[in-house]
Specification:
Layout: H1 2-14, H2 16-36, E1 39-41, H3 44-50, E2 55-58, E3 70-75, H4 84-95, H5 101-112, E4 121-126, E5 130-135, E6 139-144, E7 165-171, E8 174-182, H6 189-198, E9 202-206, H7 211-221, E10 225-227, H8 232-244, E11 249-253, H9 259-264, E12 267-271, H10 276-281, E13 284-286, H11 291-329
Parallel strand pairs: 2-9, 2-11, 9-10, 11-12, 12-13
Antiparallel strand pairs: 1-13, 3-8, 4-5, 5-6, 6-7, 7-8
Protein name: Probable cation-transporting ATPase
Subcellular location: Membrane
GO molecular function: ATP binding; ATP hydrolysis activity; copper ion binding; P-type divalent copper transporter activity
């Protein structure tokens, strides 16, 4: 035992290069390559953890899709008191207080119709549900998920309502209508998913959108695991379950409602075009808003880790062969 202690002591003293120079050099090279690929890691620990990822969880809107939604259909009850223009005006007034692709789409649609958008007061965001505000001489306007607004849509609506993001509007908790918004996949999303699957990485979609919409996107991308109707807390709990099963999980998202999941994952990535909260919470930022950059990051991190381990092992082996006989001689 005494001889072994002496041998290890000689190695540590004789080859500080492997630890003092090779390690930070490898880390700096890896961080530099990641930046060139458009991935900005906050620290070396996140880069090292990325090399061990075996499961990637993806948000839908703005991550896999372009986040450039359009209103494809509109519904109002037969006994509607307010006009279609009123529905646009009221919804836009409240959504101007939010910074989400759906909110932007509704505001833009109202502006394109050249409607006068009233000023909303006392806005309050319910993360994962919707937003509400007060309109003078109108009442409390809620805009968000159907259940948040107390809306149950008829079952005989067009097919578009089955694959669209549905946004309901209510006044004083009485539903006055709903919008069906559609989005399109980013051009490189399918390629990115295929690259992940080729590396034997499990891919999961977790979204707050209705299950039928999430299933539709998952089918287009060849993803077998897709969960819809999740609140921010639900997403975080699902990721915690994956971690408890022994998986190393990477989360990719762009919205405020993704922040709890981003914080829960082993390592997380935010889209540069997303919310400030998501970017501040994540371990790294994808500067070009593409999931393909995540795949590149996985490649660089794995390559960097292998090179570091190889060089460190070589340095230790070299010093071991040179100095260990001496350590045993003097033991």
């Amino acid at each position: 035992m005494s001889s072994l202690i002496h041998a290890v002591s000689v190695l540590v003293i004789a080859c500080p290069c492997a630890l003092g120079l090779a390690t930070p050099a490898a880390i700096m090279v890896g961080l530099g390559k990641a930046v060139n690929a458009g991935v900005w890691f906050k620290d070396a620990a996140a880069m090292e953890e990325t090399a061990h990822v075996d499961t990637v969880v993806l948000d839908k809107t703005g991550t896999l899709t372009k986040g450039e939604l359009e209103i494809s259909a509109l519904w109002q009850p037969q006994s509607a008191v307010y006009s279609e223009d009123d529905l646009y005006r009221f919804a836009a007034a409240v959504e101007r207080q939010a910074n989400h692709p759906i909110a932007k789409a509704i505001v833009q649609a109202a502006e394109q119709k050249m409607l006068e958008i009233p000023t909303a007061l006392f806005s309050k965001m319910e993360v994962g549900q919707g937003i509400q505000a007060e309109l003078e001489q109108v009442g409390t306007i809620k805009v968000g998920k159907p259940d948040y607004c107390g809306l149950i849509l008829p079952k005989n609506l067009e097919d578009i309502w089955q694959i669209a993001s549905i946004v309901a509007v209510s006044i004083n908790d009485k539903p006055i209508g709903a919008f069906a918004l559609t989005d399109t996949l980013k051009n490189d999303s399918l390629h990115a998913i295929q690259r992940l699957q080729q590396q034997n990485i499990d891919v999961v979609i977790m979204s707050g959108d209705q299950q039928s919409v999430v299933d539709y996107i998952a089918k287009q991308l060849g993803i077998n695991k897709a969960f819809g109707g999740l609140s921010p807390r639900d997403k975080a709990e699902q990721i915690q379950k994956l971690k408890a099963q022994g998986h190393i999980v990477a989360m990719v998202g762009d919205g405020i409602n993704d922040a709890p999941a981003l914080a829960t994952a082993n390592v997380s990535f935010a889209m540069k075009s997303g919310s400030d909260i998501a970017e501040q919470t994540a371990s790294a930022t994808l500067m070009q808003h593409s999931v393909n950059q995540l795949v590149d990051a996985l490649f660089y991190c794995n390559s960097n880790l292998e090179k570091y381990q190889t060089k460190s092992l070589f340095c230790f082996d070299l010093q071991y062969s040179r100095h260990t006989p001496c350590s045993f001689r003097f033991s």
